[in-house]
Structure formats: structure tokens, C-alpha cells
Design brief:
- The chain has one domain: 3-Layer(aba) Sandwich (Rossmann fold).
- By secondary structure, the protein is an alpha/beta fold.
- The longest helix has 15 residues.
- Helices cover 56% and strands 12% of the residues.
- Strands 2-3-1-4-5 form a five-stranded parallel beta sheet, with helices on both faces.
- The N and C termini lie close together (5 Å).
- Bound molecules: BIS(adenosine)-5'-pentaphosphate.
């Protein structure tokens, strides 16, 4: 079973939710660039100050900042036996940077969560009410979806071309139903 896994999918597809469950099941760290960046914003670090405005607008944080942050995280001992990446790589340049980074960090399998756009927007607007995340408002959600289509979706073609299998998982249904599909998809790896 693949233990270096990338969760791919649009905002609201359930990457974070499913990666949390799978990380627990596999005993590997869940590495979410969104979570790390929100922590940096909350702590007011230099990185957080640079990232906060871009995140609030739904734009990507510059590659060099994110790549350095992930490289540092992957160099820690708990990532030596596997990891779940969520939110990184987010464009071809970041994917190339990961491939060219420290040995042993090549992704073994990509899990692509698919959810229709109306449901994505519904989930994120619901979270806006429950959690008040800065970028869960209608304008920023539209922008995040656009950025996903233009910057991130090309990775769906990129990985198979580079020999990395991609498994499409229907992200509609309950969290438990989707997780059962995730486990099934990985069982074939
Ligand atoms: P990031 O935090 O990665 O946000 P995102 O990709 O927009 O993803 P979300 O967290 O909104 O959705 P998700 O797919 O993880 O779903 P979740 O499980 O949370 O990035 C935020 C920003 O940081 C970016 O816009 C960018 O500015 C910056 N950034 C991050 N990484 C970067 C990078 N590599 N390079 C440059 N910039 C970067 O679920 C969403 C909601 O739906 C939750 O409320 C959840 O409870 C609910 N839900 C989950 N599953 C279900 C289900 N099955 N049924 C009903 N509800 C569900």
C-alpha cells in the first residue's frame, strides 16, 4: 500500500478531512500546507505576514516560500516512512520542486477527490458560518475554484505522464462513505 500519498481536489472536496482519517490509519504524518500557513498567519511570523493577504484573496502563496516550508517539514524523522500531502503540490512548479528535493520523497499515488461545484460551495459556506475561516466567503471561494482549475488541475494529467498512478474517488456522500472508498483505492496500490 502506498505510504507517500498526495490528496488532490478542489477547495471543499474533503482533502483535509480524509487525510486526517487516513494519516491516523496509516500512522504517517498529515502534512497540510493550508494548516501550516494558517498557523504562520496566527503566529504573525514573516511567512505568515507575507501569506495572509494572498490567502484571504484566494491566491497562491509564492512557490519558494511554500516549497521551503514543505522541504523543512519532510526532512523531519516522522516523515521518513511516509506522509500524506494535502494542498501541496498545487502547481507543476511545486511538483517539480518536490521531485527534485531530498531523495525518498517521490509521491507513490495520487488520490483525486471529485465533488460537483454546487456542493463544494455549499460546504465552504457552511464552514464559514461554523468556523469563520477568512477565505470561506463567496468572492474568495470563486477565486479559489478558478485558481484550482488553472494552477492545480493540470497535475491530474502531469502525474500519470510521470508514472505516478492517480485514483479518482467520488467525494460525495458521508465522510465515512468517502473514507471507505479511499481505503479501497489504496488497497490496490
Ligand atoms: P487549503 O487550506 O489547502 O484550502 P483548500 O484547498 O481551499 O481546501 P479546503 O481546506 O477548503 O478544503 P478540503 O478539500 O481540505 O476539504 P475539508 O476536508 O477542509 O489552502 C488555503 C490557502 O492557503 C490557499 O488558497 C492558498 O492561498 C494557500 N496555500 C495552501 N497550500 C498552498 C500551496 N501549496 N501553494 C501556495 N499556496 C498555498 O472540508 C471542507 C468542509 O466540508 C469542512 O467543513 C468539512 O467538515 C466538510 N466536509 C468534508 N467532507 C464532507 C462530506 N463528505 N460531506 C459533507 N461535508 C464534508
Amino acid at each position: 500500500m502506498g505510504r507517500r500519498v498526495l490528496f488532490l481536489g478542489p477547495p471543499g472536496a474533503g482533502k483535509g478531512t480524509q487525510a486526517t482519517l487516513l494519516a491516523r490509519a496509516l500512522g504517517v504524518p498529515h502534512i497540510s500546507t493550508g494548516v501550516m500557513l494558517r498557523e504562520a498567519v496566527a503566529e504573525g511570523t514573516d511567512l505568515g505576514n507575507q501569506a495572509g493577504v494572498l490567502m484571504a484573496a484566494g491566491d497562491l502563496v509564492p512557490d519558494e516560500l511554500v516549497v521551503a516550508m514543505v522541504a523543512e517539514r519532510l526532512s523531519r524523522s516522522d516523515a521518513a516512512c511516509g506522509f500524506l500531502l494535502d494542498g501541496f503540490p498545487r502547481n507543476i512548479e511545486q511538483a517539480d520542486a518536490l521531485d527534485n528535493s531530498v531523495d525518498g520523497h517521490a509521491i507513490e499515488v495520487v488520490l483525486l477527490l471529485t465533488v460537483v461545484e454546487d456542493e463544494l460551495v455549499r460546504r465552504l459556506l457552511k464552514r464559514a458560518v461554523e468556523d469563520g475561516r477568512d477565505d470561506d466567503n463567496e468572492d474568495t471561494i470563486r477565486r479559489r475554484l478558478e485558481v484550482y482549475r488553472s494552477e492545480t488541475e493540470p497535475l491530474v494529467e502531469h502525474y500519470p505522464l510521470h508514472g505516478v498512478p492517480i485514483r479518482r474517488i467520488d467525494g460525495l456522500g458521508t465522510v465515512e462513505e468517502v473514507f471507505a472508498r479511499v481505503v479501497m483505492a489504496l488497497a490496490h496500490e
